[in-house]
Amino acid sequence: MIRGDDKVIAGPKASTPLAGGAAGLKFENAPLGDVVHVIMRELAKVNYLIHPPITGAVTLSTQGNVSADDAVFLLENALLANGFVMAQDARGTYHIGRPDVVRNVVPAVRQAIKSNPMPPGHGAIIIPLKYIGAAEMAAILKPMAPGEAIVRVDTVRNLLVMTGNRSQAEGWLDIVSTFDVDMLKGMSVAVIPLKYITTKEVQLALQIFSPGGGAALAASAASGNATQAPAAGNQPAQALARNPANPSGALPGAGAAAGGASMSPSFPLFGALRVVPLERLNSVLVVTPRAAYIDEAKAWLDKIDRPGTSASEPQLFVFPVQNGSAAHLANVLSGLFGSGSAQPPGTPNSGVAPALAQGAGVMGGNAQGGGGGASAALNPNAGRSNVQGAGITTVNFASGLRVMADGINNAVLIYGTAAEYAKVEATLKRLDVPPSQVLIEASIVEVTLNDDLQYGLQWAFSEQKNGGIGQGVLSRAAGAALGSTPAGFSYTWATSTGDVRAVLNALADKSLVKVISSPSLMVMDNHTASIAVGTQQPVQSGQTITTGGNVSSNIQYKDTGVNLSVTPSVNSGNMVSMQLNQSVTDVGSIDAATGQRSFLQRQIGSKVAVRSGETIVLGGLIRDNSTAGRTGIPFLSDIPILGNLFGTSSKNSGRTELLVMITPRVVRSDLEIRDLANDVRERMKGLLPGKLFPTAPVDWTPDLKILMTPVTSTKP
To answer: What is the pTM of this model?
Structure first.
């Protein structure tokens, strides 16, 4: 790009102001020639030439002293009133006479510049224009200037050449400065894209709003060449309703009606709104000096730019997924619209409820999904759409609609008609919502059982002592013996968190409680979270003896402790259904035959339902530890009967019960996540010395549900 200096003419020299003195003027019916001599010679002190005859009388009076320039300005108007003019030649001499005589004198060219005052006299004036076009400005000045005033309209240099005296020129310059402004700076411009119709289809309706559009519309309608869309719903000329008796589409009285609507000065948008179709961009450019007209034009275009009910031309649409998974939404669509066929499988998709399939990540993983339960109800086989490559899932429907999920960009591509896309888009917007999450707060506590707790914590929970914390029902299955060994936890307690805190805080005061682990983790709805607390026990899996007699052992490590997996499912009422899978592995005694440690493993699987914020307590896993020892003098302590005099024997036993408390909290928004974080901070501040759990108000009337089986002890 080469930029110019914007200099298209070499302007004349700047005029010098008159240097005469100031004086008061008062003429009463004085001869015109005498007035000229007084002002030009005595006051202005300039060279002048009178072209006779100069006749006429002048009455002129000022209230005070005026400058020489103002006195010459008054003289110019007095000469003009008597049919004479004054002009200045190139050498600075002023010529005074009749217009036809002075016209033969070549006047000095003057340029209209704001910083330089206009010199006196009649002559040519060059008016350069900055923003407005020369032709447009000439059209504005023509009704207000004499016929011979506009000498030249130079559209190449964008300037006007006019002729007149200083009084006329200053009036014209005021008009020019009013209109010669940066119009684009005050204009509002908008590019409005079209989604369902083309610029050709909307052009007929847009002609109404453009200057001269009414005549073009009338001619187009009269000739039957009005643009027609493929479908009635896509035809922008719906506003110009067809008469059933007029199948050609011509408007009755089109020339008068349309022309009157668009060309009449009373039309509200006449000349104030320019609409330009941009065919390549399939958009409309709207330019107007009123910003409010932009909104009006967009509102009308939105009413026109709509899909038709019988539109048959397929298009490609892209729906960006913001909250869920594109592959999951594609599977849901296959169930909603039905009769679809999936492409041959690539990498299988996990389907509607990926959290229930194998391979669900520990602690929830990063898999995405949401509302899986609803989509499963719509179509149990919704997972039949499969990945076609790197994150691409395709579903074909019998109607010709194709839906493709781009897993990499997390977007759904829809290929179909505009009407089909409108239905699919409405469905996707309702399904693309933030998935629910569940905060799992788990506490694994080991309680020492003695005195009143010798029968287990279920008695402390169920019996009402000293006011108690609640009521429960202890039942035993028919035929169950007290000496039987249950597998895993033997009762489940559903209550508020405060009840459990009260009991455990009371036991903590007696140093009977040991917190093994207290993890908190967030997991998405219908996904699995796993918690493992324990150690790895070395186990000899093999032994090798080389020819040289060297012995090498193979050691493997076996996980021991508590393993708990939780798969929550949330409904609209904040009821959380949890699939619980629990296993406890303890290290037993040494097997005499193999010399290896034995392992006692107990497993249980259950599904429970609890409201958000309430606590599920899994208990009943009681363990007896018995140890026996003897110390004494070697050999002497082994003598029968008398050996007790030289040694001592000791026996120790202990009973512990393992409790697992799970509190699910449903989180549906970022605000709730922040509230939970603040709640954790407050709970940490509320920790007191000697208390294992935060002190909180206790609800003494909980809704308790106790499901119990006989509790017995087990000896490893």
So the answer is: 0.42
